[in-house]
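Notebook B, p. 112. Complex prediction, attempt 2.
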Amino acid sequence: MNHKDLESQSNASTKIPILWIILGALGMFLAHYLVFIYAPMETTMRAAQRIFYFHLPSAWLCYIGFIMCAGWSLRYLMTQNPKHDALALASAEVGLTFGVIVLTTGPLWARAAWGVWWKWEPRLTTMAILFLIFTCYWVIRSFGGDNAGVRRFGAVLAVLGAPNIFFVHVAVTRWRGDHPNNIGLEPEMRVVLYSCLLIFIILFSLLVRLRYRVHTEERTVSALSRRLSRIGG
Amino acid sequence: MSERTQQVSLQAQGLTKAFGEHYALIELDVAWYQGEVCALLGPNGAGKSTLLNLLSTLQAATEGEILLKGKKLTRQSAAELRKEIGFVGHQTMIYGALTAFENLEFFAELYDCWPAELSQKEHQAWLLDQLEQVGLKPAAHRLASGFSRGMSQRLTLARALLPKPSVLLLDEPFTGLDRAGIQQVCELLIKAKARGATIILSSHDLETTQAISDRALILKAGRLQGLHTLDVGQDKGALLELYQGSVN
Amino acid sequence: MSAQFWPCFKAILKKDLKIELRSKETLATVSLFGVVLTFLFAFGFMGDPATNLAVAPGVLWAALLFTGSLSVGRTFAREQENSAFTALALSPAPRSAILAAKVLVNIAVMLGVMLVITPLLAILMHIDLSTNLFALMSLITLSTVGFALVATPLAVMAVGARFPEVLLPMVVFPLVTPVMICGVRGSAALLGTSADLDYLAWTQMILAFDMMIGGGAFFLFDWMVSE
Amino acid sequence: MNRHPLNIIKLLSLLFIVLGLCLGGLTVSVAQAQDGSESVKPEAKLEAKPEAKPEAKPEAKPEAKPAQVDIRPNPKRAANKNFDSEKEERLENLRYKHLWIAYSLVWIIIFVFIRQTWQRSQAVSSRLEELKSRLIALEEKDK
């Protein structure tokens, strides 16, 4: 890899997505307004129901992050392109962040709604297992050191873990499938929910890009310092 | 080496290997010929083992490539080219819970390298014959875990030679061997060389190395320091001189 | 001139079984561990007959997971002695043959262990298994297969890792959750303590899991061990 | 065919994945037929087809139990509650407390993540700059 390669490689990822940041910031204000003022008060759950406008988009994006991680991991296994690996790691990390949101807001909501912090309910359980798998992924990637073996191990874990969740879900659903699913959201609630989802998607892609940038730059740094150590003898 | 018209069997082009920020091997360009013995020399940490590991497909190069008989050694082609490579590493790579005979049998099955002219019944005799060549026939049916370092080394060598590889990579093959053992190993190597195999060995035993090597490749801190042709008639200290001259 | 799948598969299988039958090391240690586990679980959960019936499946499958991760780790520790796995990796044997043989060996060892644990548990907890023996056996076998299919490729990859003994259980346990749930629920249905579904549906579910994870593992395995 | 055993293995693997998915879906439909009217089941059955994605779908209806009868604002219901207003008020407080905790947690988590990313990226860029200047200095010295 010569100097120019390094330059172009780092330039491509150094660009801070200004537009996205502005969009995300505006979206935040909008989300606050929508969730706290615009959305009608729900009758049975009252204020606690508003948690759900954050909870649900986070859950979706958590899943999307993990699926993206699995997809990029598969590509990494096939191509050995370190960029795919960086993308996989970035999406797993962002997915995990949203997973933490889901797993903290979820119990708070459950406590207000059902009077318990945790319920062995299919979605909760599936989420928890998925979260565990990707926490393992993250732990391995953070503490295993940066070498090809660790990357491959993580990639395999992600690829095996994501479809595995299908089985966990089906199994838990059949085991504890006493969950009423029919809900009707009022139109205003729908509006709030979907706008929140959109805003969270913007936030998600922004975070993934920022994270990806960090990972690629870290790799550039190690490549550069390797080069320096080589030139320096 | 006089017969330079011979074919190139193994080639390294810009071969580089980095571990983290440390370079073990830097842009190595070398060609090895059929039927030659090349000695790898250099102080500890010079990259000898790394080079052998790369050539054996055990590790993947960071940059550069390896050509085996003109074919690029990649992840895809490695599966097919592995049969052509014999490797003896620091570790003996034998199963302690199996006897010497069973170890060889397992690898013969794995490589599917039974001589075509032999019937199933003669396989056993053939394997014993292979063991005989490394002087292990008396211990053929003893568990390998009870072997001394020298015996394990012989068994490892027999295993590596079993599929008649065209490239033989040896990392410190003489460790733990007595004089007679070294003699025996040298004979085996010369036989393989006569068959047309390329032998690359790293060793600290300069005297033995000089006796069987055609060329000496000297590495220092991952870089090629010198590639010298050794003449049969040279006196015993010649290699040592070369080595010291290059390294210091 | 790539090597063939079957000869290599047979050679590796033969070698592993030979070593295992000769030293009986893995089988003995892991079975003993399983026996100890079963006793401890029995101490911990022993109650009236109804409770015993209710906890037995959980105990059995927990024991399966623990002994399974131990035995998978053991079969690879054997390869690491003298770095023998390096020789295997350098051989022209197809990667899938190595994986298939290793999976089969692990299944064999784990089944052997389960053969010891299951009757012991039945005796300790006063449970009559004889009525649904075949169904229970198929459930256990399929769970074992599922576990081996998940754990073996990861164990192969963990051979050179920094902390394999923690890494493996940590990674494998969340991945085999479906096996755990289906196995426990299925055997609970067999024992009559669970009213939700009949065991056949659960068995089918594990089978589906086995096929899918097995397919995935074999599909990916070439890429897994590339260096 | 025999020359590429690996490809056959790959094909077989894919076949098994598909079979496994079908079987998984089939089991669910069997289960559904067995216990009849569970509203969750048909959903799970649908999920059998697209690979790896199904998990996102069930999240679509997270409202769960609270919405038992009717979610629309219902004055009668509100009137009914008068008899236990103290308890109701405590519950209301609890709900608001939970909302605020959840809300602040969401932003704390996101903020911490962004801050951490930012710090790392700052550290990396400064190191990158330093290395680049060293590299340029070295290259100039070479000339």
